[in-house]
Amino acid sequence: MANHPGITEAQQRALRSWLKLLGSGNAIRKSLTAKMQAAHGVSLSRFDVLANLYRAADEGVRLSELSKQLMVSNGNVTQVMAPLLKEGLVDRKPCPNDARAAVARLTNKGRKTFEAMAAEHALWVEDLFAPLTADEHQALHSLLEKLSTSDLD
What we know:
The protein has one domain (about 40-150): Arc Repressor Mutant, subunit A (Orthogonal Bundle). The chain is about 65% helix and about 10% strand. It is built from 6 helices and 3 strands, in the order H-H-E-H-H-E-E-H-H. A 3-stranded antiparallel beta sheet has the order 1-3-2. Helix 1 crosses helix 5 (about 110-130), helix 2 (about 45-55) crosses helix 5 and helix 3 packs across helix 4.
């Protein structure tokens, strides 16, 4: 990166790290998206919704909480959920203690479908990270954890 007036060396290092992290994350997401679409006809966004619902308790997750977990808007969750509801992978019911809210949960079909997808997804992720040694995995994890616990707001 060329020296830019007003940008310090520390800022340049941070920008280079940010661009490398962003590029790597985008490349990994693009690869996983293509594999998920080819194997299951599902977007990675839909897979992410299924994964969050899979980890949820049997009573499900409020849609507002799901949007927070996925870091997307409520409208985005609604749009991604529509085909999952139509295919019978997810059901949506009014929240028992708040009539204004809705709760989503996996159906039995959704649970089985997700488990098949998740097994393949784990293999694909393993392949993408295969160039790293065990120590490098730990170092990467530690560095990313350090970033995620810093003041990002």
